[in-house]
Amino acid sequence: MRLLFLFANFFTIGLFSVGGGYAILPFLFEIADNASGINVDGWLTRELIGNMLAVAQSLPGAIGSNLSANIGFQYAGVPGAFAAALGLTAPSIIIIMIVARTLKAFKESLLVKNLFSGLRPAAAALLSAAAFWALSLALWNADAPVWYEFIRWREALIFIILFFLIYKFKKHPVIYIFIAGLTGLLLRL
Fold it and tell me: The pTM is what?
């Protein structure tokens, strides 16, 4: 029953998360905040999602699949990882098969053009919200005892430096992941 529940929840997320892997973050935060369904015991928190996101970004493969598999594994072991990942990707596979068969016939249709013109801002909004939440998870410490500790200054410094390096030099993402991990280790010593 847990596997079916995982599959159904992630199928729903996959069906409505337009814009790629990061677009599932608002749905995951909703699960974490409500402590219902698969999060009935409150084990899934925003902080855990942030940690899982860091791991998912460091692994090969799609971030959405990595996140869903990780959550599924935490909830129901290896079968849960498969159920969640399959649930998340199944809607895309089904929709792509349908769209590929019909898009050729309707690619010049005003209705199709208007549909995509509405989906692009929705995808941008979901990705922007996900970026904001990921940034707040990395840099904001809501449990700080004093106001000047609300910002995680070391993490903010790493973010600013990496943002500049990524923007300026445009190297392979693995280099920046390695630099960030190494910097995190060095700053904690």
Answer: 0.62
